[in-house]
Amino acid sequence: MHTDLVAALDIGGTKIAGALVDGHGRILLRAQRPTPAKEDGGTVMRAVEDVIGELAVSPLWSRATALGIGSAGPVDASAGTVSPVNVPGWRGYPLVERASEAAGGLPVELIGDGVAITAAEHWQGAARGHDNALCMVVSTGVGGGLVLNGQLHAGPTGNAGHIGHISVDLDGDLCPCGSRGCVERIASGPNIARRALEEGWRPGPGGDASAAAVAEAARAGDPVAVASFERAAQALAAGIAATATLVEIDIAVIGGGVGKAGDVLFAPLRRALDDYATLSFVRRLTVAPALMGTDAGLVGAAAAALTRRPRTAGAHV
Q1: Whole-angstrom distance, CA of residue 166 vs CA of residue 182
Q2: Burial class (CB within 10 angstroms; exposed 0-12, middle 13-18, buried 19+) of 164
Q3: Coiled-coil segments, which residues (predicted)?
Q4: Which CATH number fits domain 5-112+296-308: 3.40.50.150, 3.30.470.10, 3.40.50.300, 3.30.420.40?
Q5: Do the bridges between strand 251-255 and strand 151-153 make them parallel or antiparallel, or are there none, so unpaired?
Q6: 59 close to 33: Cβ distance less than 8 angstroms
Q7: Residue 2: pLDDT above 60?
Q8: Contact 24/306 with Cβ under 8 angstroms?
Q9: Among the listed residues 30, 32, 29, the one whose alpha carbon sits nearest the alpha carbon of residue 14
């Protein structure tokens, strides 16, 4: 009997999504509000409370046994706090305590958004059946998460697997995080576009200067656009290979907007992996596009809530 039901929240800089999710990963009910990202912390929390409140009026709510939250980071699961970069009103904000109050005292499981997407891909998506996996989100930033020995490995604060801030260029550009030459500084969407523009690529008549536009130009054979994606692929390959060498993953799953570029990204990425993943135990490493789409954060937050509780039946993430 899969009677388990959990509430899930996916909190980002643009939207706060909520859902009731069953033990098979099916979304039974959803609610959403825009994130008032520029407002004070209390205003942002009221949007979260509105989403929880909309779920709580459903007759299904009484079956919910926990609330899983995947949040933009940094998060600190050990302290129950969040400090999302793009929500300045929340700095060390006690989200776990406040969300539990709003949810009538339900236990809360907090993880970073990269870890949430990893949980979803392992439970229902491209990493299903793999006991050791790295899942990455390559979009405005570069985040990620790990599955080790068949278990989501969130780490003490919920940030393990944050591959975007592995340094792959020792003397590279300063990253906003304070380090140099981070994967994110080379491979994120805005940085792919920035590099292409610096090297002389020009957007078309519509003026679209996004990474998606660079990908389109690369598909059409523009050499500067191709080179920008090759550089991003090289940075991703170096980070993936370092991770695989350290913890022996056998698949790397790539999602996010940049992951949708298809062969423009994956062809040079697979070539570059041959250069970096050279030891015998990492040579079989495969790379695959993510499958979960826009619900990944919600499904992953639900997965964390379902699997972190003792005596859970039904969901084995």
Answers
A1: 5
A2: buried
A3: none
A4: 3.30.420.40
A5: unpaired
A6: no
A7: no
A8: no
A9: 32
Class of domain 126-291: alpha beta
pTM equals: 0.90
CA distances from residue 268 to 226, 262, 274 in whole angstroms, order as listed:
9, 11, 10
Q: In this structure, which amino acid lies at residue 168?
A: V
Tokens of 238: 């170096």
Q: Which helix (H) or strand (E) holds 287?
A: strand 286-289
- Tens of pLDDT, residue by residue over 132-166, are 999 999 998 899 999 999 999 999 998 899 999 99
Joined together, the tokens standing for residue 305 give 């809530």
User: DSSP for 200-229?
Assistant: T----TT---SHHHHHHHHHTT-HHHHHHH
Give just the sign of the alpha carbon dihedral 251, 257, 263, 266: negative
Euclidean distance between the first and the last CA atom of the chain, given in angstroms as a whole number: 17
pLDDT in the model for residue 311: 36
Residue type, 83: S
- Percent composition of the chain: helix, strand, coil (DSSP 3-state, to 5): 40, 20, 35
- Spatial neighbors of 159 by CB under 8 A, at least 6 apart, are 73, 74, 75, 112, 114, 115
Give me 40's structure tokens.
Answer: 């004070």
Short-list 33, 66, 28, CA closest to 307: 66
* Residue 167 DSSP label: B
3-state SS class at 277 = coil
How far is the C-alpha of 315 from the C-alpha of 317, rounded, in Å?
Answer: 6
Domain with CATH 3.30.420.40 in the chain: 5-112+296-308, 126-291
- Pull the structure tokens for residue 131: 């006991």
